[in-house]
Design brief:
Elements: E1 8-17, H1 24-30, H2 32-37, H3 43-46, E2 56-60, E3 65-74, H4 78-90, E4 97-105, E5 122-128, H5 132-151, H6 161-180
Antiparallel strand pairs: 1-3, 1-4, 2-3, 4-5
Helix pairs in contact: 5-6
């Protein structure tokens, strides 16, 4: 189902480490929501990105890495597609990993639009992993990285130990709450983060 008038170009970017016992058929099945959304009949048929300079969807067997740098036209319903994809990737992932999803407004022209106009660009972070703990670890590491980079504009890195400790405490409380609520045995959602609308446009490539 080719989307000639799709409101967005959607770019998915990230590397997911896979278990040693995972083969190509399992990868293809896990990524079924993506390649079906692209209108293909198989992963191989959809693996190529909309842009030639992007490697698309590849599996690097020596490193056991699923590498995604892939753009597809689409709309807001792609968020549900990513939710389903992340749930499936949880079952074959060897460790936690983030996936960046960027929505670029195809109808916005910076040269033609007025100064007040804003693109409908959007961004979301998704997380996958074999366990809720693995997903939370990735979320924690990214948050620490972002907070430290922001605060190092004003403070020396050696002064930020208490900030990192506070972040660790918050994630420990969240994990304890998950265990206590008896949800640990359920498949992790593998999807989280917030997204914002409007504002200055980001570069198409995130790598």
């Amino acid at each position: 189902m080719t989307r000639y008038n799709a409101p967005f170009e959607i770019h998915v970017h990230g590397d997911v480490p896979l278990r040693e016992d995972v083969g190509y058929e399992q990868i293809q099945e896990a990524l079924r929501p993506l390649w079906q959304y692209a209108g293909a009949r198989s992963l191989a048929a959809a693996a190529e990105s909309a842009y030639e300079d992007e490697p698309g969807i590849r599996f690097d067997a020596p490193s056991r890495q699923l590498q995604i740098c892939w753009t597809v036209p689409g709309g807001e319903e792609f968020r549900q597609v990513m939710e389903e994809t992340c749930m499936a990737l949880n079952d074959i992932a060897a460790a936690g990993a983030p996936l960046e999803v960027s929505f670029y407004d195809t109808e916005f022209d910076e040269e033609d639009e007025s100064a007040e106009a804003e693109a409908r660009d959007d961004f979301m972070m998704c997380f996958v992993g074999p366990t809720p703990a693995a997903i939370m670890q990735v979320q924690r590491d990214l948050l620490v990285q972002d907070v430290v980079q922001l605060m190092e504009r004003h403070f020396d890195g050696s002064e930020l130990g208490e900030v990192v400790t506070a972040i660790d405490k918050l994630f420990s409380q969240r994990f304890d709450a998950l265990v206590n609520s008896m949800q640990l045995g359920k498949p992790p959602r593998g999807h989280g983060g917030s997204s914002g609308h409007g504002g200055p446009r980001k570069p198409r490539h995130l790598h």
